[in-house]
């Protein structure tokens, strides 16, 4: 069977007064049923825009899908009508966002917000939907769910609100869950609880997950495969063990070296990536990482490296003229 | 470049005999009020409840804990930005809690702060030159020309182009703004800088630049840092010693490596376990979820040990009495009746 989600050469640009922002500039990846793909990168690398584009949740205009296909179960979502999309959003593809404080409506009761999707997509009665909401709250670890249906979001803590969001996302039994920085706003002990919960629910519901985060620690424990993005492009794509054990792109290497790790035995100087991420209105020519790359040569300025299998392993894609193994030869 | 007078030149801070900073039994409670016209106090937020520690010249003490544990309030109470409810803050032998406003001003030359949010902590209507030079102007140090030279020097020290003095904060990225905040803090040659989550708003590559910079400046100017953060891996990286706070109290304090190798307080253990390590092989072996539930509200902290509601080792005594700080050797102390040892850690 084909992939659950297949993104082909997707380009999402924003047409602003300052110029065209090349937020997502030709990315391709696939997600299979029941698997987790982690998308990592720093702010502004296009990881969120890429995911929002799947659901067409970016403001259009100024945003526009300039090129590419988003195939969900073989159907191209870029060509789908708003009506068709509405039957997919929250039903086949659900999403949880970073900020649990602002992604719930503060003036509506939790019970209403939880049951809304089920009544629209599954045609459940209010009664049925409420029963299911209580079950879901139990599944995501909200104690005494029945008593909390009439509560408002402000009566929940940050971690509990994120659990409500997850319950809401799961309510229609989605095939794909897009989690955009689901734990970034939470404290570490709560983050651990939420990640644990997501993994457990993924097993239980068998859904695929697209996990977008800047935290390499979080993806290391959860993802099957990882995509590393930089300035709107994918620079490296491989399975999790391979990425951490055998990073080939200079950006991935530097990113891994720049994180202080709890298991460092002695104080070391952190890897330095000089400079700043580029302006996506006028991205650098050739390889977009070349102005910050210590291995850059003339070819990197002139020609964009293709994302191609690196000789070492099957399915390990790198977009670099001087990936690590080629430098060491 | 204009000449800089001797007074303005950055010189390493003189070494002071004894601890630079001594905080003892620090308490800060914020009143909760009710009523619109006649306000009455209906309760207190127990933000800081009896915090004690010492900090030496040139040393970094990390202060970690989850949101609402009182770590930032502690930092602000030290600077007397908040008036502590009780307790003492002794800086270079001088008791700060008894000083008048005017007396405090001269002490504040020695202690500065860098804030978390690089977008909110710089005045958007002031140029970078004015922002960095403001401490010098307030303390009437040097003439205008000399101050300008010093500002250029400071920008250079933190790795910014000295010609940026006429630009405004919005022209800079988050990491660069944080450098501006740091230059401002360095302007008066302080001995102590309180870093209140200085890197948590930054991307990892920028965070690494900032941490390396803080490291270099400390060595160059013999600065002491009180490094407040929620990210234990960052704190462990930069600190000599680490204090772990929970609901207004320090529950464990130890040299950083020792704290990581041998956490004795169940909260520290749970906190360490919760942090993901960017290594899939290690990650598969680790158990993250040791702690259940949320941090209780600081307006009604639990009786006895404040951590007992989430603790996996709690016994009846924990609900009745707050355990005292006990020495575990190697500069390691913790407040727990049932501290973890090697065996119990393996079991948990």
Parts with pLDDT < 50 across at least 5 consecutive residues of chain B = 1-7, 9-13
Helix content of chain B: 25-40%
> What distance separates the N and C termini of chain A?
40 Å
The backbone outline of chain B, from C-alpha atoms, is globular
What shape does the CA trace of chain A take? globular
Question: Rg of chain A to the nearest angstrom?
Answer: 21 Å
Describe this entry's structure for a reader.
The complex is a heterodimer of chains A (329) and B (348). Chain A is built from twelve helices and twelve strands. The longest helix of chain A has 18 residues, at 188-205. Chain A is globular and about 65 Å long. Chain A is α/β, with parallel strands linked by helices and 329 residues long. Chain A has helices spanning 47-54, 82-88, 110-121, 126-139, 145-148, 158-170, 188-205, 216-222, 240-245, 250-257, 298-302, 324-328; strands at 5-16, 19-31, 36-40, 63-72, 75-76, 93-96, 176-180, 208-213, 225-230, 233-239, 308-309, 317-318. Chain A is 33% helix and 22% strand. Chain B is an alpha/beta fold and 348 residues long. Chain B has twelve helices and twelve strands. Chain B has helices spanning 71-78, 101-108, 128-138, 144-157, 174-186, 204-221, 232-238, 256-261, 266-274, 280-285, 316-320, 342-347; strands at 21-34, 40-55, 60-64, 86-91, 94-95, 111-114, 192-196, 224-229, 241-246, 249-255, 326-327, 333-334. In chain B, the strands form two sheets. An eight-stranded mixed beta sheet of chain B has the order 6-7-8-3-9-10-12-11, sandwiched between helices. Chain B is globular, with a radius of gyration of 22 Å. Chain B starts with 20 loop residues before the first strand and ends with a helix.
């Amino acid at each position: 069977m084909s992939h659950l989600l297949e993104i082909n050469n997707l380009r999402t640009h924003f047409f602003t007064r300052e110029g065209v922002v090349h937020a997502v500039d030709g990315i391709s990846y696939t997600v299979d049923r029941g698997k987790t793909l982690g998308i990592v990168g720093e702010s502004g690398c296009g990881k969120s825009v890429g995911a929002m584009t799947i659901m067409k949740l970016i403001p259009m205009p100024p945003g526009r899908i300039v090129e590419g296909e988003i195939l969900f179960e073989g159907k191209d979502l870029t060509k789908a009508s708003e009506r068709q999309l509405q039957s997919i959003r929250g039903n086949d593809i659900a999403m949880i966002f970073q900020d649990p404080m602002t992604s719930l409506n503060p003036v509506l009761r939790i019970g209403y917000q939880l049951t809304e999707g089920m009544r629209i997509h599954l045609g459940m009665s209010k009664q049925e939907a409420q029963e299911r909401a209580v079950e879901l709250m139990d599944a995501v670890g909200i104690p005494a769910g029945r008593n909390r249906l009439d509560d408002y979001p402000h009566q929940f803590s940050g971690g509990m609100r994120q659990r409500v969001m997850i319950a809401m996302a799961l309510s229609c039994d989605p095939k794909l869950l897009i989690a955009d920085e689901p734990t970034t706003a939470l404290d570490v002990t709560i983050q651990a609880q939420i990640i644990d919960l997501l993994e457990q629910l993924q097993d239980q519901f068998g859904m695929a997950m697209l996990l977008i985060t800047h935290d390499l620690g979080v993806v290391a424990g959860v993802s099957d495969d990882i995509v590393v993005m930089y300035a709107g492009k994918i620079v490296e794509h491989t399975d999790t063990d391979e990425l951490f054990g055998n990073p080939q792109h200079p950006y991935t290497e530097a990113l891994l070296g720049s994180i202080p790790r709890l298991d460092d035995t002695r104080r070391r100087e952190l890897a330095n990536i000089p400079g700043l991420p580029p302006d996506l209105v006028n991205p650098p020519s050739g390889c977009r990482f070349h102005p910050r790359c210590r291995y850059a040569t003339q070819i990197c300025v002139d020609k964009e490296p293709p994302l191609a299998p690196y000789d070492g392993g099957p399915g390990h894609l790198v977009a670099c003229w001087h990936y690590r193994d080629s430098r060491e030869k | 470049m204009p000449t800089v007078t001797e007074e303005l030149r950055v010189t390493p801070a003189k070494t002071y005999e004894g601890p630079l900073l001594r905080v003892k039994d620090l308490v800060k409670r914020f009143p909760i009020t009710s009523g619109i016209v006649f306000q009455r106090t209906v309760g207190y937020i127990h933000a800081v409840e009896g915090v004690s520690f010492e900090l030496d010249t040139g040393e970094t003490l990390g202060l970690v804990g989850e949101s609402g544990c009182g770590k930032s309030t502690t930092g602000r109470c030290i600077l007397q930005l908040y008036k502590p409810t009780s307790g003492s803050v002794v800086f270079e032998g001088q008791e700060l809690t008894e000083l008048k406003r005017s007396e405090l001003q001269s002490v504040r030359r020695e202690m500065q702060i860098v804030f978390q949010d690089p977008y909110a902590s710089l005045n958007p209507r002031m140029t970078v030159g004015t922002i960095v030079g403001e401490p010098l102007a307030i303390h009437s140090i040097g003439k205008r020309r000399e101050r300008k030279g010093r500002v250029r020097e400071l920008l250079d020290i933190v790795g910014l182009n000295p010609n940026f003095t006429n630009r405004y904060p919005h022209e800079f990225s988050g990491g660069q703004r944080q450098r501006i905040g740091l230059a401002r803090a360095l302007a008066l040659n302080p001995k102590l800088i309180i870093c209140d989550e200085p890197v948590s708003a930054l991307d990892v590559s920028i965070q690494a630049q900032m941490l390396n910079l803080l490291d270099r400046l400390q060595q160059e100017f013999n600065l002491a840092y009180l490094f407040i953060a929620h990210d234990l891996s960052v704190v462990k990286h930069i600190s000599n010693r680490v204090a772990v706070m929970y609901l207004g109290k320090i529950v464990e304090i130890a040299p950083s490596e020792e704290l990581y190798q041998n956490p004795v307080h169940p909260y520290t253990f749970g906190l360490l376990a919760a942090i993901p390590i960017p290594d899939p092989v290690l990650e598969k072996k680790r158990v993250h979820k040791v702690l259940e539930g949320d941090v209780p509200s600081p307006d009604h902290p639990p009786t006895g040990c404040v951590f007992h509601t989430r603790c996996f080792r709690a016994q009846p005594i924990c609900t009745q009495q707050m355990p005292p700080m006990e020495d575990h050797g190697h500069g390691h102390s913790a407040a727990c009746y049932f501290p973890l040892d090697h065996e119990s850690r393996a079991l948990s």
